[in-house]
Design a protein that fits this description.
It is a single chain. Helix content is 39%, strand content 23%. By secondary structure, it is of the alpha/beta class. It has one domain: Rossmann fold, CATH 3.40.50.1820. The longest helix has 27 residues. 40% of the residues are buried.
C-alpha cells in the first residue's frame, strides 16, 4: 500500500489516498486513533467512481469518526479510471436497452452484469483488508457498509474478519447470490429506499428474507435512491457501535 496524499479535515479526521496493486483507495482515520489505541475498521462499499462518489463516501466516513471508527474504500473494478471489460460494457448496454424499452431485466443480463463484478471485487476487498489491518493504527473488529449488495453478501460469506454489515439495497441481485445469502450469519442492518427508481423492491425483500443471520434488521424509508434520511444513517452508525466497539466480553476479530 502506497499513500499518495494526506490531508487533515476540519473535524480532525485524517484523509489519505493510496494505491494498492494498482487500485486507488482512500483511508479516513479519526483524530483519536493511535498505535496504542488502534481503531476498528469499516469498509465503505459503493457502486463505483471514487471521484463521483467522494462527497457521499467522505460524509459517511466523517459520521463514523466520532464513534472511533476508521473507514476505507477502494475503486470498484471496471469503474473510475480502471479498465472496463468488454463483457461488462455489453451487459450494461443490454441493461439500459431493457430499461429504456420498459422490458423486464432478464436473469441472464443480471448474471452477466453482477457476477463477474462480485468475483473480481471480493478478492480485491480482501487484499485491501490485509493491507489495512497491517497498519499499526488500524485494528479490529471490521464491518462492511454499503453496496453493491451482492458484493457485501459474498464478503459476509467468505471473509471471517468481517463481524457485521450494513447493506444498501438498490442494485440487481443474481439468483446465485440469494443462495449465498442463506450462508450469511453475521449481524446485518439492511437499508432499503422504498421508492428507489432503480431497485426491484420485491427482490430486496426476498434477499433480506433469505439471509441466514439471526440478528438482522430491515430499515425501509420512503424516497428515491439518493434520499436516505439522516436518521437512517444514524441508525446504521449505532448498529456498528453496538457490534464493532470492543468491550470486556468482545474479543478482537480474527486476523486483526
Amino acid at each position: 500500500m502506497q499513500f499518495t496524499s494526506e490531508r487533515r479535515l476540519d473535524d480532525g479526521v485524517l484523509e489519505r489516498d493510496f494505491i494498492l496493486a494498482g487500485i486507488p483507495g482512500t483511508l479516513w482515520t479519526p483524530a483519536s486513533v493511535s498505535t496504542s489505541a488502534p481503531a476498528p475498521l469499516i469498509l465503505l462499499g459503493h457502486p463505483g467512481g471514487l471521484r463521483r462518489m467522494y462527497p457521499r463516501l467522505a460524509a459517511r466516513a466523517r459520521r463514523s469518526a466520532p464513534e472511533g471508527f476508521a473507514t476505507a474504500t477502494i475503486e470498484l473494478f471496471g469503474s473510475g479510471d480502471r479498465p472496463r471489460p468488454a463483457a461488462a460494457e455489453q451487459a450494461r448496454a443490454d441493461l439500459h436497452r431493457a430499461l429504456e424499452a420498459g422490458e423486464p431485466v432478464s436473469e441472464e443480463i443480471i448474471d452477466a452484469l453482477v457476477l463477474p463484478l462480485v468475483d473480481k471485487a471480493v478478492p480485491e476487498w480482501q487484499t485491501a483488508l490485509d493491507a489495512l489491518l497491517a497498519l499499526p493504527e488500524i485494528g479490529g473488529p471490521v464491518g462492511y457498509s454499503g453496496g453493491v449488495i451482492s458484493i457485501g453478501t459474498r464478503l459476509a460469506v467468505v471473509e471471517p474478519r468481517i463481524s457485521a454489515a450494513v447493506l444498501f439495497a438498490g442494485s440487481f441481485v443474481p439468483r446465485a447470490i440469494f443462495e449465498e445469502a442463506r450462508q450469511v450469519t453475521i449481524p446485518l442492518h439492511v437499508l432499503l429506499q422504498w421508492d428507489d427508481e432503480s431497485n426491484d423492491r420485491q427482490a430486496a425483500l426476498d434477499l433480506f428474507d433469505a439471509f441466514g443471520s439471526k440478528d438482522k434488521t430491515l430499515h425501509a424509508n420512503m424516497g428515491g435512491h439518493t434520499g436516505v434520511p439522516q436518521y437512517a444513517g444514524d441508525a446504521a452508525a449505532q448498529f456498528f457501535t453496538r457490534h464493532l466497539t470492543l468491550g470486556p466480553d468482545k474479543p478482537a476479530a480474527e486476523g486483526s
